[in-house]
Amino acid sequence: MSTVVEAVRSERQGFISSKLNWLRAGVLGANDGIVSIAGLLIGIAAVDPTNTHAIVIAGIAGIASAALSMAIGEYVSVSTQRDTEREIVRLQHVAQSRNPGHAFNEIKQVCLQRGMSEESAHQVASDLSSHEPVNAVISFKYGIDSDSLTSPWAAAGSSFIAFVSGAALPMLTMVLALPPLRIVATFVSVFVALALTGWISAWLGRSPRQRSVLRLVCAGSAAMIITYAIGRLLEGASMV
Length: 240
Description:
By secondary structure, the protein is mainly alpha-helical.
């Protein structure tokens, strides 16, 4: 019985890990929105921080184009993943219809590869394949829930929302702050937001948090400094 419990626990951990990866992807999507839009707006404000009209237009256009691009990319990627999952499900159904012992053999082989003894592997395979054998082997071997395949539309929507949510911070900060303080206020707010998203992504990924925060803050700060410098250079070139 303990071997069956361990096998089921391993399967559940796989599903939990998958959900955490989705959450982590959402955090990283928000981070992309923060950095890319902050860099864009700081570059524009470096030329003329008082031109609110230009900042708003550029910000909205940048958010829309980048968020749609990310959503489309996510849709295509996840659609390919779902096609692969569907093909695995189809092939397993075909194999099971041709050989009723297919699911048992597949699960047993996976258990043996994971270091179980012959007896334990036989017990686990027998218990798991006794009810809905195809779903059992798909779940146990591939970590796929055949009743809940990945939705490309949900992935695209999540990516879009995550990006827009992150981009809203530098956009609102830049628009609401007084013109002389816009660049500094945006830099500070983005600095704090990057530290937070870096900590969350490190926590979800079980990696060193201080290193992740430092890496993300430094990279984001470098991006804003570079775009600010480009804006200043273009301003100087236009005055020549």
